[in-house]
Amino acid sequence: MSGLLVGGLLGVAVLVAPGRRVLRAPDVRSPRPRRANRPKAGDEALLGARQAERAAALLRAGIAPALVWEHAGGGVEGPAEASPVAVRAVWRLVTATGAPAADALEAAAEGLRADAAARAAVRTALAGARVSARTVSALPLLGLALGAALGAPPWEALGSGPGRLAGAVGGVLLVLGWSWSARLVASAERAAR
């Protein structure tokens, strides 16, 4: 008994040696993914896919359906509220019809992962449009600064009647262009949902 205690203390001393970080074994009891592997907070589809995959694996391993959701990160009666409607709907369908639960949950997870990948692709594609809109919006101000740097102060030209009119029209067009591109990006994001 004392040998086990001494061995345990030596192990702790080695792991907590000065200048070293404490090494911890992963918690194998927790079905939740580690923080570094968790999807972004807004990506509910990936969370639901992971939960459905865990539940399907537990069902295939022989865990009783009544206990599956407790171990898969849900509640006693079914998927957690955080999981998407698709997983809850599949579970309700499976329990009502007696369909093979593991197969249905794996198919739902596959669909949710495809949906999350499509949304990520849309976000990636729209990133260029956002940067382009910001760059084009900044060009008129850059032109004014460049003119001032080259010795042609723009405020002198904007001080006259036609200059004020051109500045006002340019400002209105700049705001309209920025608004239009923001609406296009928002429309594309809504269509991807």
Brief rundown of the structure:
This protein is mainly α.
Give a written overview of the molecule.
The structure is a single chain. With 193 residues, the chain is mainly alpha-helical. It has helices at 2-15, 44-60, 65-71, 85-97, 101-149, 154-158, 161-192. Helix 2 (44-60) packs antiparallel against helix 5, helix 4 packs antiparallel against helix 5 (101-149) and helix 5 runs antiparallel to helix 7. The protein is rod-shaped.
What keywords describe this structure?
single chain; 193 residues; mainly alpha; 7 helices; 71% helix
Q: Roughly how many Å apart are the termini?
A: 61 Å
Residues in helices, as a percent range:
over 70%
What's the tally of helices? Answer: 7
Count of individual beta strands: 0
How much is the average pLDDT?
75
How would you classify the helix and strand content by structural class? mainly alpha
Per-chain topology:
Blueprint: H1 2-15, H2 44-60, H3 65-71, H4 85-97, H5 101-149, H6 154-158, H7 161-192
